[in-house]
Amino acid sequence: MTEEIAMKIKFLALAFAMAATSGAAYAQNASIKARPENNLPTTKDAAANNSAVDLSAKAATDDPNYVIGPEDELIISVWREPDISRTVPVRPDGKISLALLNDVQATGRTPMQLGSDITGKLKNFISEPQVTVIVSKINSQRIFVVGEVGRTGSYTLVPNMTAMDAISSAGGFTPFAKRTKIYILRKENGKMTTIPFNYKEVLRNRRAEEDVVLKPGDRIVVP
Fold first, then answer.
1. What element of type H or E holds 68?
2. Is the sign of the CA dihedral 107, 111, 112, 114 positive or negative?
3. How far is the C-alpha of 146 from the C-alpha of 196, rounded, in Å?
4. Which DSSP string do the residues of 97-138 spell out, in sequence order?
5. Which of 205, 82, 78, 57 is nearest to 135 (CA)?
6. Which phi and psi (to 5°) does residue 180 adopt?
7. Concatenated DSSP letters for 178-202?
8. Comparing C-alpha atoms, which of 105, 48, 55 is closest to residue 77?
9. What is the DSSP string of 21-52?
10. pLDDT digits (tens, 9 = 90+) for 165-205
11. Whole-number Å distance between alpha carbons of 121 and 109
């Protein structure tokens, strides 16, 4: 009798163990099915990964002949290569840093020329690279307005910007400004030159040719 009870206990223990194992396997299978494609990237995830660089960002200049300078900010986009595409500043030494290529000379090049340079270098690592270069911020082309104006400081030099344009960008004159005594400090070939600018005469005569066209680094002084 005792032996019969023992056999029944062993049978019940075996049945319980088999049921527990079956339940665990079912739970594991259900968990796998619940995962989207076994954690493969979804279309939404892929889109997010490919948007590391925003090509919709407005270019700071539409001039195809714009020459890149130190401290400008560039968007480098390499098609289907999000790990290489990025926004980079131009260093004071005139170079930018990119994955695979390390340092690349940027100053003295137009965006199209720099894109061609990067394309040529990437061919050693990528098949048929397609590179786009956008100037997103112009920080190298700056002029300065100081003295009796509404807002002294540095301003981005746009193509064909004149002294009158710069003064207007700086908020115009204060009541104490000496409009006939304005001058422009310009450094050329290592030497500082002074260019007189009589605002009243230019305005009175309405001669655009007398309005000084500015160059990078010019400093307009309004006494």
1. none
2. positive
3. 15
4. EETTTEEEE-TT--HHHHHHHHHHHHTTTSSS--EEEEEEE-
5. 57
6. -95, -5
7. -TTSEEEEEEETTEEEEEEE-HHHH
8. 55
9. HHHHHHHHHHHHHHSGGGGPPPHHHHHHHTTS
10. 999 999 999 999 999 999 999 998 889 999 999 999 898 87
11. 15
